[in-house]
Design goal:
The complex is a heterodimer. Chain A has 24 helices and five strands. By secondary structure, chain A is mostly helical. The longest helix of chain A has about 35 residues. The radius of gyration of chain A is 26 Å and the shape is globular. Chain A starts with a helix and ends with a helix. The model of chain A has no long low-confidence stretch (mean pLDDT about 85). Chain B is mainly α. Chain B has one domain. The longest helix of chain B is centred in the N-terminal third of the chain and has 34 residues. Chain B is globular, with a radius of gyration of 19 Å. Chain B starts with a helix and ends with a helix. The chains are: A mainly alpha, B mainly alpha. Chains A and B meet through helix 16, helix 17, helix 18, helix 21 and strand 5 of A and strand 1, helix 3, helix 4, helix 5 and helix 6 of B. Strand 5 of chain A pairs parallel with strand 1 of chain B.
């Protein structure tokens, strides 16, 4: 069975890394080669997995129903994305990690994480889903801790959320088992239809909450930015691009495959105000609020991790709008997001590798020094902002159109607003890093090497090609839609079929190239230009030199700052979180006082316990 | 004439025609403002002389390759977007991209310019770009909401279909008559899109030395001028197509262009400049809620 190898190979990778961890400090090359070999072995395995779609492996029987592993169209889509990003991350890390002294188990946790994620997308019953989910969460936790004291502190925020999510998921799993009598997805999908509304609502809350937490949907998002941004930058790329999206995977499976659209639409007070509306509103908040929070960040990694929350909002918007256009947009956006966000963070990492900082107030003018990183970030931000011709635009277009025609004008407005916020913050990112005045201390730096450049080039090609020929990915998406029982999008190579709307990216790119060449010819008609130094600049009569900082990057969006500063400081979710934390630590303090450490107190407890038992026994007997 | 030949002629002529109209409108604008201020004003085709002069300059200063590419992207991107905008007798590319595509294509030139201005390493330029981007949250949002209203009403996102829907019953079916709230909101947004006072925060010559144009000279500035004139025509055409029922022939189209531009110029002539945050607050207080009311109206009347 091919699919089982997808689980076995990462485990072998994990065990190998653990064995090699001792020698990693002395011979990092051995560890890196091992990681490369294992990750490369995953590629053929994931590619040839296609024919096993539909096959189910039955495992041991637990609590009266057997553990099931199986492969679906959606699983395959995710497996390919997981494997792809893992290979690219490992490629990048070979160049980016100067030594493995600080991260002896970097690759170990990475492979464990891969295994957990693949197990999640393979599991076909709630119990194995829960087990895989927990493995994945723990691997994420350890992966996050690769980056010193700051990362350790930040990872605790994730841990708190992950443990709560895991417990709720366990409760939900057991609740569903007790009321509907099975763990299996296929059996559940038949039984949920006939279940009564009370059971449905409880099961829904218990199952949806952990998925919303993992997908970092507002207001359960606050664990993400700090914990992702504090780790080693290649891990940030990995976690931001695929890890959070497992929540979206779970939501897709739960909403469309297990519950089914009819059941989802039944839950609510009217045909308009139902569960989908709740999800749409949450998704709109997720898209808008974190995106505008990103504007105020001064650290490149923080900025982009806020976007990894916001972009999840778009996916949920698309999925919850439930039309052919919308679900295609949501599913397509998962892939697009993965490619451009990894591209942006790799570029940030390339800059960090040379300059040693990701602080946006301390960079600038690196475009001539690191042109490849600049191009990578440029392609990435065009995708992230959803501007043609990159792939992010196509999926966002599908989502906008679906929301407008579906009759959700204000939700659509939120989607547009979030895009404006995205454009603003990504321009700040690229401006403060690569444009403006070059600082004196960065005059000697140069481009990064092959291992770090290769993933950037590959992702640039992917982002552009899937933007110009979205049909390449939409054909997968359409198959997934069919397998989930959703309406299927009519697509063609350049966009959507004329019946679905007017979009053809091939025409757009041809026109783009033609007009670009025409404008270039016009540019050439003028007399030759001369490139001057950055100090040869208009400064209102002053002379510029190395000692004059002449740059605008601090407090870049001052008008927004002026308007929103108070709201930003207020941060209601953070406040609730802080108060809850304080409450729990107070309660824990009271609990702690039970354990006084004195033998006579414990003796008294014992006596009390015996007394209680005696009383209870007397009542019962 | 064969349809294919006609199309090729259109593709070659459309940018030139738009540029010529832009020159006339730009000249009219300067003359209009001058007369309001009791000056004689420059020639009617002064923008054309400006462009010729700038393109012929012998000294051209560049700050690097991004600076060069940005100016090419600026003009190329604008002309590309132009092809998706239907005018009387031409709507070929509309089938490959609807109004949402147009609204995002128009960001390519802006982004190109933003990157180029960034490389010129002049803080005045960066401030101008920062203001331009922030203003998107004001006028672009308002215009999009007005468009969402129309799209919901006619159940299409294509600009050409909206025009056709408005042309069914003469003036009575123009969006500005059927949905005046959306029309008024979009008119406010148009003022911001055209960067005219009181929303002229991007250039702000007395404050940030013309912002993005600070380090532009010679053919760079010349190409910016060309782009500006084409953009002027294009954005006025958005409003005409979406709210004034498009146009059945070129005579009607040109009349409408000048009429709408006169409204914009009149406001421009008598107002001072807002601060960026004031301009944003203004958009969120008046035009955006107006558009929201209009959309609510459409939503409830449809039921």
């Amino acid at each position: 069975m091919n699919t089982l190898w997808l689980l076995i190979v990462p485990i072998i990778g994990f065990l190998g890394s653990v064995l090699l961890a001792g020698s990693a400090k002395k011979y990092p090359a051995v560890m890196k080669s091992w990681a490369l070999i294992v990750s490369l072995a995953l590629i053929p395995l994931s590619v040839v997995a296609g024919p096993s779609i539909g096959a189910v492996i039955t495992g041991p029987v637990v609590f009266g129903s057997s553990l099931l592993l199986g492969f679906t169209e959606l699983s395959w889509y995710f497996v390919l994305m997981i494997v792809g990003i893992t290979v690219l991350t490992i490629f990048f890390s070979v160049g980016a990690l100067r030594s493995l002294t600080v991260f002896p188990l970097y690759y170990g946790w990475l492979f464990l994480k891969v295994m957990g994620m693949i197990a999640v997308v393979l599991s076909r019953d709630l119990l194995s889903f829960f087990i895989a989910w927990e493995m994945m969460s723990w691997a994420t936790f350890f992966l996050m801790r690769q980056g010193g004291e700051k990362a350790h502190r930040a990872s605790m925020g994730y841990l708190a959320y992950a443990v709560v999510a895991g417990m709720i998921l366990l409760a939900g799993t057991l609740f569903v088992r007790n009321t509907l009598g099975t763990f299996s997805f296929t059996e559940l999908s038949q039984r949920f239809g006939g279940a009564d509304t009370g059971i449905l609502v409880v099961a829904l809350i218990l199952m949806l909450l952990p998925m919303l937490i993992e997908a970092a949907v507002y207001p359960f998002h606050s664990w993400l930015p700090d914990s992702y941004a504090s780790t080693e930058t290649s891990i940030t790329a990995y976690l931001a691009s695929i890890s959070t999206r497992m929540g979206i995977y779970a939501l897709t499976v739960f909403l469309f495959s297990i519950l089914g659209l009819q059941v989802v639409d039944r839950i609510g007070v009217s045909s308009h105000w139902n569960l989908r509306m709740v999800l749409l509103v949450l998704a709109a908040l997720t898209a808008v609020l974190p995106t505008f929070t990103a504007l105020f960040q001064h650290d490149a990694k923080q900025l982009i991790t806020w976007h990894s929350i916001g972009q999840g909002g778009y996916m949920l918007l698309g999925l919850a709008s439930a039309s052919a256009l919308g679900t295609a947009g949501g599913l397509f956006h998962i892939f697009n997001y993965l490619t451009y966000v990894a591209l942006i963070i790799f570029s940030i990492a390339a800059v960090e590798y040379r300059t040693g900082t990701t602080n946006l107030n301390k960079l600038g003018g690196l475009i001539t020094k690191q042109p490849v990183a600049f191009l990578g970030m440029l392609f990435g931000i065009i995708g992230l902002a959803g501007i043609p011709p990159m792939n992010g635009f196509v999926s966002k277009w599908l989502i906008y159109r679906s929301l407008i025609l579906g009759g959700y004008p204000f939700i659509a407005l939120c989607a547009f607003l979030a895009t404006i916020g995205t454009i603003l913050s990504v321009y700040k990112l690229i401006h403060n890093t690569f444009l403006g005045q070059l600082r004196e201390e960065y005059e000697g730096i140069r481009e990064v090497g092959f291992w770090m450049q290769a993933p950037i080039w590959i992702l640039m090609v992917v982002v552009l090609v899937t933007g110009v020929f979205p049909g390449l990915i939409l054909q997968w998406v359409a198959r997934i839609q069919a397998s989930l029982g959703l309406e299927v999008l009519a697509y063609n190579l350049g966009g959507v079929s004329p019946g679905e709307g007017n979009l053809n990216m091939i025409a757009v790119i041809i026109l783009f190239l033609a007009t670009f060449v025409a404008a270039w010819l016009l540019f050439l008609t003028g007399s030759r230009r001369r490139i001057v130094s950055q100090y040869d600049n208009y400064a209102g009569g002053h002379f510029l030199n190395k000692n004059v900082p002449y740059n605008f990057n601090y407090n870049f969006y001052s008008a927004f700052d002026h308007i929103f500063d108070k709201q930003y400081q207020r941060a209601p979710v953070k406040k609730i979180e802080r108060n809850l934390g304080r409450f729990i630590s107070t309660m824990a303090d009271y609990t702690r006082r039970i354990f006084t450490g004195q033998i006579n107190t414990y003796a008294a407890y014992g006596l009390l316990a015996v007394l209680v038992v005696l009383i209870v026994l007397r009542e019962v007997l | 004439m064969n349809a294919g030949v006609g199309l090729i002629v259109w593709i070659i002529l459309y940018p030139l025609v738009a540029f010529s109209l832009g020159v006339l409108l730009g000249g009219y604008g300067r003359k209009f403002t001058a007369r309001v201020q009791r000056r004689v004003g420059p020639s009617w085709i002064q923008p054309f002389y400006d462009v010729i002069k700038l393109m012929g300059k012998r000294t051209n200063i560049s700050h690097g390759y991004m600076h060069d590419v940005s100016i090419i992207l600026l003009l190329g991107g604008t002309v590309m977007t132009l092809y998706f905008v239907p005018v009387p007798g031409y709507h070929f590319f509309g089938q490959f991209g609807d109004f949402i595509v147009v609204m995002y294509l128009i960001l390519i030139p802006s982004l190109g310019m933003a990157l180029g201005v960034g490389q010129t390493a002049n803080p005045n330029g960066s401030i101008g770009i920062s203001r331009a981007l922030q203003m998107l949250a004001g006028y672009e949002l308002t215009f999009m909401l007005a468009f969402i209203g129309l799209a919901m009403k006619h159940h299409t996102t294509s600009m050409y279909d909206v025009i056709l829907a408005q042309q069914t019953g003469g003036i009575a079916t123009w969006s500005i008559v059927t949905d005046p709230l959306l029309g008024i909101a979009a008119l406010f947004a148009l003022q911001g899109m055209l960067n005219e006072k009181p929303f002229e925060v991007i250039m702000a010559p007395h404050e940030i030395a013309t912002g993005p144009m600070t380090e532009m000279g010679g053919k760079y500035l010349g190409m910016m001028f060309i782009q500006h004139l084409i953009l002027l025509v294009m954005e006025l055409t958005f409003f005409i197509n979406l709210f004034l029922g498009g146009a059945l022939n070129w005579f009607e189209y040109i009349i409408k262009l000048f009429a709408v531009f006169t409204v914009v110029l009149s406001v421009n002539a008598v107002y001072g400049r807002f601060r960026t945050d004031t301009a944003l607050r203004f958009f969120w207080k008046l035009p955006l809620p107006l558009a929201a009311l209009g959309v609510l109206g459409i939503q409830f009347l449809a039921k």
